[in-house]
Every structure is written in structure tokens, then in C-alpha cells.
Input
Amino acid sequence: MMPVARISLLRGHSRDYIAALSASLHRAMVATFEVPESDRFHVIHQHERHELFIDPHYLCGPRSDGFVLIAITAGRPRSVQVKQNFYRRLAEELGASPGIRSEDVMVVIAANAPVDWSFGRGEASMLRGANQ
Output
């Protein structure tokens, strides 16, 4: 199953910046997170300052206004090694383009089951083969 990524950051970034962020995330997912090239589902939310509360010093800070939170619903679970490789590659890709500091990249991954996905038509799309 393909992941869906929800990306949250402060408002004010250009279309080019957002496109670069999405492209870098996708490159990292394809290279290390076992995602096919054609599976790209990203939803990007730009928030007003009063809508995004981030502790600037918790664990890997200090964080800046360039902070980005990437919440990934992954479908099937990935191994610890796959996740660690993904985190490193993602920080590299986002550092290169659009220029996000590694301290400003937070990732949360949640796995779920095939029955939790519907891609349309009111069907549990990932179960079609199992139900036929």
C-alpha cells in the first residue's frame, strides 16, 4: 500500500518551495521507503503562526520557523532499518531542495491495515482481490 503524507508548515512559502518539498519527500520515499514511483499522495497544509505549536528545543532542536512536520500513514509496516534509511535520505533531500535544515524536519509514521483504505467507489480497494 502506498503511503499518504500530510505535511504541515508555517504559511508563506511559494509554489516552487512547496513543489520542491513534495518532490524531495517523494524521491526519499521511492529511494528508501519501498514506494513505487507512481504512488504520490501528499497533502500540504500551510498554517498561520497561531495554528502551529512546536517546542523549539524538544529532542533534536533547536527548531526554526522553517520547521516542517511530515505525518505519514504508511499502510504496511516498514522495518526499523527502512525507516532509519528513510529519515536520513529525507533530511538530505530536503536539505538540498528546498533547503530545510535537518533540525527542522519531524516525521511521524503510522501503519494500518488494507481494510483501512478506500480509493473510491465505496470499496475497501485494497481488499478487492481478497473478496473476489
